[in-house]
């Protein structure tokens, strides 16, 4: 310590401990701000944690790979958290079974809209072909979207970024948009949030209403299934 | 608590193994979700299963703990944006607009279909 404070930084910045701590502390503060604003959509904790940590990495010249070596312990929990969605599903099973038909129809309508709209809009915007392909699976959860992008020979890391951006925008837009449509059915609102904005939408839905969260979780799981089939098909039909 | 986390991981592990083994086009954790759901439903039917993490809300409490901070889990992947700054500099505005429009259209299509179908069903029931 006495001779070179810089060597301590070199040691810490390469260890998983530092970046895991940074991720947790930054998120804890953005989440506290979100709570203090009574979960205002624009105070989305993921959005703000993302740019603060990102800026921190750029300022310290740390590579994403080094950061991820620490943050992977958090990232890993996405899988178990998906499994854990079984519990709210189980506890609300009666309501879920009672709305099975509207759910399935909305699932098909929503998945098709998600994929077709993004491919058509991206083509219209004149984005390069590999970008269009990487954006196509953006409404499903990151792991699945990366798998789909890989099978299309697109860029999985761009797909992951598109997924997160979609999730954040969906989570920000969903409450004001739904309030404007005047729809107060939290089953339908939650289902839409999970379908369009996967886990980030689901996290938002749980903040607003427990039933919305349950339906959002179901939509997110089902959409992961449907989109895996749908994207290759849509891409063959729609991409030049 | 520990056994409950173990059970959640076990469901995911079996899910991943089956999906890989059979080449199913679905994510492993989603199959794990189905598995845990079946276990919880089976427990209500067969008292034999109601032990360990499946007793006294064990797995329920652990799951709710995980889901309470669901947003946090997306932060590491989200920070990956720093790797794509050059692409965002050249195509960022178009990409953001495309994604934003698409997510709005998708939200509306889904919520309106859901409401329409459940209203039609209710009318049918009333008749």
Helicity range of chain B = over 70%
Distance between the termini of chain A: 60 Å
Shape of chain B: extended
Major sheet attributes of chain B: none
Tally of discrete structural domains of chain B: 2
Mind telling me the C-alpha Rg of chain B?
Answer: 21 Å
Total number of β-strand segments of chain B? Answer: 0
Uncertain segments of chain B of ≥5 residues (pLDDT<50)?
none
**Oligomeric state of this protein:** heterodimer
Mean pLDDT across the residues of chain A is: 89
How many DSSP H or I helices of chain A? Answer: 13
Write up this protein.
The complex is a heterodimer of chains A (240) and B (127). With 240 residues, chain A is mostly helical. Chain A folds into two domains: 76 residues, no CATH class; 160 residues, no CATH class. In chain A, helix 2 packs across helix 4. Chain B has two domains: 71 residues, no CATH class; 47 residues. Chain B is built from five helices and no strands. In chain B, helix 1 packs across helix 2 and helix 1 crosses helix 3. The longest helix of chain B is centred in the last third of the chain and has 42 residues. The radius of gyration of chain B is 21 Å and the shape is extended. Chain B starts with a helix and ends with a helix. The mean pLDDT of chain B is 88. At the A-B interface, helix 2, helix 3, helix 4, helix 5 and helix 6 of A face helix 1, helix 2, helix 3, helix 4 and helix 5 of B.
SSE topology sketch:
The complex is a heterodimer of chains A (240) and B (127).
Chain A: H1 5-13, H2 16-36, H3 45-60, H4 64-76, H5 78-84, H6 86-91, H7 93-98, H8 100-124, H9 129-135, H10 142-151, H11 156-181, H12 186-208, H13 210-238
Helix pairs in contact in A: 2-3, 2-4, 8-9, 8-12, 8-13, 9-11, 10-11, 11-12, 12-13
Chain B: H1 2-22, H2 28-45, H3 58-68, H4 75-79, H5 85-126
Helix pairs in contact in B: 1-2, 1-3
């Amino acid at each position: 310590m006495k001779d070179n404070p810089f060597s301590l930084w070199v040691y810490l910045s390469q260890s998983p401990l530092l970046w895991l701590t940074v991720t947790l502390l930054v998120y804890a503060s953005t989440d506290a701000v979100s709570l203090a604003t009574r979960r205002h959509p624009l105070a989305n904790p993921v959005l703000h944690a993302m740019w603060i940590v990102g800026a921190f990495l750029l300022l310290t010249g740390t590579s994403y790979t080094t950061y991820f070596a620490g943050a992977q312990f958090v990232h890993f929990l996405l899988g178990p958290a998906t499994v854990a969605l079984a519990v709210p599903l189980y506890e609300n099973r009666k309501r879920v079974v009672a709305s099975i038909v509207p759910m399935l129809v909305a699932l098909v309508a929503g998945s098709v809209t998600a994929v077709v709209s993004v491919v058509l809009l991206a083509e219209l915007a004149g984005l390069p072909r590999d970008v269009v392909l990487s954006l196509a699976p953006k409404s499903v959860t990151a792991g699945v979207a990366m798998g789909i992008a890989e099978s299309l020979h697109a860029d999985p890391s761009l797909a992951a970024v598109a997924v997160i951006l979609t999730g954040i925008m969906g989570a920000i837009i969903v409450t004001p948009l739904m309030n404007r449509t005047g729809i107060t059915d939290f089953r339908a609102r939650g289902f839409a949030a999970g379908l369009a904005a996967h886990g980030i939408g689901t996290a938002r839905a749980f903040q607003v209403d427990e039933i919305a969260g349950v339906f959002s979780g179901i939509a997110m799981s089902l959409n992961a299934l449907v989109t895996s089939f749908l994207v290759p098909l849509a891409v063959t039909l729609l991409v030049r | 608590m520990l056994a409950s986390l173990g059970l959640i991981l076990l469901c995911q592990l079996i899910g991943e193994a089956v999906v890989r083994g059979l080449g199913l086009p679905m994510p492993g954790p989603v199959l794990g979700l189905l598995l845990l759901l079946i276990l919880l439903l089976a427990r209500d039917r067969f008292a034999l299963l109601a032990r360990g993490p499946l007793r006294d809300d064990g797995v329920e409490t652990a799951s709710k703990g995980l889901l309470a901070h669901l947003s946090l889990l997306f932060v590491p992947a989200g920070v990956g944006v720093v790797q794509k700054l050059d692409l965002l500099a050249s195509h960022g505005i178009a990409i953001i607009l495309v994604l934003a429009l698409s997510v709005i259209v998708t939200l509306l299509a889904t919520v309106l279909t859901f409401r329409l179908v459940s209203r039609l069903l209710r009318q049918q029931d009333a008749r």
